[in-house]
Each structure stands twice: as C-alpha cells, then as structure tokens.
Design brief:
This protein is an alpha/beta fold. It folds into 2 domains: about 5-150 and about 295-345, Medium-chain alcohol dehydrogenases, catalytic domain (Quinone Oxidoreductase, Chain A, domain 1); about 150-290, NAD(P)-binding Rossmann-like Domain (Rossmann fold, 3-Layer(aba) Sandwich). The chain contains 10 helices and 15 strands. Strands 3, 4, 5, 6, 7, 14 and 15 form a 7-stranded mixed beta sheet that branches. Helix 10 links the parallel strand 14 and strand 15. The radius of gyration is 20 Å and the shape is globular. Bound molecules: NADP nicotinamide-adenine-dinucleotide phosphate. NADP nicotinamide-adenine-dinucleotide phosphate (NAP) binds near residues 149 and 173. It holds the Pfam family ADH_N. It comes from Aspergillus caelatus. This is NAD(P)-binding protein.
C-alpha cells in the first residue's frame, strides 16, 4: 500500500467575474482505506478541454456541482488497490473514463467528471477499477492524457466512415485535431475549417500529402458552399460538427444525401434563430444527425486498442505543456482559444 494520505487538488472558485482566479489549489485527505474495488492513481498528466474553461467561466449548458474539480482527462499510474481488485494491478498505466455512468451502450445514467462529480485536476485520484482503461505502452503520459475526452469523442464522431470517404472537421481545437489524426489513419479525405489562415497553413504543412482541403469560416461565411464546390456539389460523407446551433444547418447543407452530421460541440453559443431551416434541410438532404457525448468505457477500450495497433502518436497535435501549478493560466489560455490542438498540465514526476 502506498503511504500517501492526501492530495493537492485545484477546485473551482465559481467566481465568474472576468479577471478573477477561476481555480484554487487546496490540500485534501484521500478516501482511505480504499473501497475493496477501488484503485489509487498517481496522476502524471491532465489535458484540458474547452468545457473546463467554459465551466470555470460559468458557461456550461448542463448542471455542475459547486466548487468542483475541473478536468475530465488524466493519465497516471496505479499505486494502490483495494483488496478485491482483479482487473488491474499496481504499476498499471491507466486513464479514467469521462462519464463514470457510461460503461456500455445500454448504460442509463450520466455522471461527467468535472460537472456531475469532481474531475481530474489533482495529484491523486480514486476510481473503481471498472472505470479505468489501460493506456497504450508506446505513449508518454502527456500524449496518453488527451485520449479519454477529445480522443473518445472524436472516435465516436467518426464511427461508420470507411477508407476513401470524405469528412469535414470544424476548428483546430482538441476534438478537431484528434479527429484529424483518426481520419488520416483511416484513409479519409479531409476538409478542415478554421477562423485562422495561419492555423490552417500550419496544419496543412504538418500533415503533408494527401493535402488537407482548408476553408476559413471567418473570411468565408458561406463556407458550406465552398465544401460543396470542392466535392462537386455532392457534400461530405460526415461532418464533425463543433459549432452547434450557429453552424448546424450549414453543416447539413454540405453533407451528402444520407450522410451523417456528428453533433459534438456548441462553440458558437445558443443561436436558435439559426435553426429555422433545420426541418426543411434535414428532410431535403436526408441527413442523419447523430448526437455525440464522449464515449463509453467500451469505446475508450476500442480506441486504446486502435492507437496501440497503429502505434499512433500525438506530439503533432499538442499545443503546449504547462506545469500543474500553472493550471489557472492554462485554463485561461484555452478560454481565449489560442491553441492548436491540446493544452496539457504535466505533473513533472
Ligand atoms: N459532445 C462531446 O462529447 C464533447 C466532448 C468534447 C468536447 N465537446 C465540445 O466540442 C467543442 C470543441 O471542444 P474542444 O475541447 O475541442 O475545444 P477547443 O480545444 O477549445 O477548440 C476550440 C476551437 O474550435 C474552433 N471554433 C471556435 N468557435 C467555433 C465555431 N463557432 N465554429 C466552429 N469552430 C469553432 C476554434 O478553432 P479555430 O481557431 O481554428 O477557428 C477553437 O480554437 C466544444 O463545444 C466542447 O464543449 C463535446
């Protein structure tokens, strides 16, 4: 049994006034002795997501517990186990799942880390053994930490497409760049939108051939017409939709008949007035709208297997790595949307 009895953890201040601290570092006792099926994880890296910044600034569309712990991604090492743990062992490298009630497609509950319960921005975590997945052995802690949320979401969003098909990915954030990696590994033709030519050119250079088709959604507000032009009027097979109500109808308009829009994000904020043509468009385009909410434990296991099989690495979609102590600054950086890809907190041991 490890001798650690307390943890350092960042809790939200829930002060949403611009310019005030959004998180505070506190020391807390660990829940010891461990429940018989629980594992104690020493955290090595936590990756941030848009929702961490959004929740810290009071913007989450779903309820959150007061003064909760941010973070729904972590990679760490098991340092102690309850007496009946059988699925994992001390020394295993693991990542918890993001929604602890979403184990399989038949699960009925919902409990997202960092919202319905405390998240991962802490030196140590305790989870039931059934809620952690082993991480690929070829990845370091920083790269492994991006898999549960951005990775499993991108994996769920791309399900069903096959080699040679076309995909439109929106933005250059965490989910988008992870989707880019999976789409490239799956042999898909990729269309990518961003508000920034600089970001688009950087990604285009990085990913090389076959060339990613890029569109600036800020300078080309009718970007869906450009997608249609580039696909000979057909539209793409699948859209990874990150904008939400502000862009959904446009996304449907450039999806091929019978294609899929995977609704992942809500970055454009609530814009119900832009959904007026939803029904006529969904009928006209015969489009399938698929809601994505992370993925199940089984999905996360499948993704880990795919990453191991392909020996995929993620250094090219990591924007920056910050020390754990700089969590406040890193959350603000994500809130400002300055990153390309993932922002990670490294615990330095
Ligand atoms: N449903 C789920 O399971 C799930 C899971 C994870 C995340 N999400 C949601 O998915 C979205 C992306 O999350 P993330 O963590 O990847 O965010 P992120 O890393 O913060 O990336 C956000 C990026 O998206 C682009 N963007 C901003 N506003 C946009 C808009 N109106 N339309 C299209 N693109 C826009 C920007 O890229 P450019 O600067 O290149 O324009 C921005 O940098 C968020 O809404 C998040 O809450 C949902």
């Amino acid at each position: 049994m490890a001798h650690v009895t307390f943890r350092q953890v960042f809790r939200r201040t829930d002060d949403h006034t611009p310019g005030t601290p959004k998180v505070k570092l506190v020391r807390e006792d660990l829940p010891l002795p461990l429940h018989p099926t629980a594992v104690l994880i020493k955290v090595h890296a936590v990756s941030l997501n848009y929702r961490d910044a959004n929740i810290a600034n009071g913007g989450n569309p779903w309820p959150v517990i007061p003064h909760g712990v941010p973070g729904n991604d972590a990679a760490g090492e098991i340092i102690a186990v309850g007496e009946r743990v059988s699925l994992v062992s001390i020394g295993d490298r693991v990542a918890p799942i993001t929604d602890t009630e979403f184990v399989s497609a038949r699960s009925t509950g919902r409990s997202w880390l960092a919202a319905n319960e405390d998240g991962t921005l802490a030196t140590h975590l305790v989870f039931d053994e059934k809620l952690v997945t082993k991480i690929p052995t070829h990845l370091d802690w920083v790269q492994a930490s991006i898999i549960p949320c951005a990775g499993t979401t991108a994996w769920s969003a791309l399900k069903g497409v096959s080699i040679g098909q076309t995909v439109l990915i929106q933005g250059t954030g965490g989910v988008a760049t992870f989707a880019l990696k999976l789409a490239r590994a799956s042999g898909l033709k990729i269309f990518l939108t961003s508000s920034s030519d600089e970001k688009l050119n950087k990604i285009k250079d990085q990913f090389g051939k076959p060339e990613i088709q890029t569109i600036n959604y800020r300078t080309q507000p009718d970007w869906h017409k450009e997608v249609l032009r580039l696909t000979n009027g057909i539209g793409v097979d699948l859209v990874v939709e990150n904008g939400g109500s502000s862009s959904l109808v446009q996304s449907m308009l450039c999806t091929r008949r019978g294609g899929t829009v995977s609704q992942v994000g809500y970055l454009g904020g609530p814009k119900p007035e832009q959904l007026k043509e939803f029904v006529s468009t969904v009928i006209d385009r015969r489009v399938n709208i698929r809601g994505i909410n992370g993925g199940s434990k089984h999905d996360q296991d499948d993704l880990m297997a795919a990453i191991s099989a392909t020996e995929m690495t993620f250094e090219d979609i990591i924007d920056s790595v910050w020390p754990f102590e700089k969590s406040e600054e890193a959350i603000e950086f994500v809130w400002q949307g300055k990153q390309i890809g993932k922002v990670i907190l490294n615990f330095g041991q």
